[in-house]
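not sure who needs this but someone in the group chat was asking about Potassium voltage-gated channel subfamily E member 2 from Gasterosteus aculeatus so here u go. i didnt clean anything up, its just raw.
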Amino acid sequence: ASDLSNVTLQLEDSLSSALGRYLDNWRRNMTAAANALDNTLAEENFKNVIWYLAVMIGMFAFIVVAMLVSTVKSKRREHSNDPYHQYIKEDWTAQIQQGDVVAN
């Protein structure tokens, strides 16, 4: 019975130490990876990224607003004092009057 309990204790100790070594190595690797990532990010220059994004979004917004304004202006109704509108109105009025004269 003492041999069996001794084997159990040895197995527990060996598994505990193996798991402890694995977790320590894993923690060291994760810390090393995090440090490497921090160093890489520190080397990169991200200070002007916000300005770049602001300029790009601003240009996109300007183009969209310009398209919307031009579309709204093109869909607006014609004014009656527009020369082209006056020409069409006078031409149609003349044709209707000629039709009345011919009909009479």
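also Residues 46-104 form one domain. if thats useful
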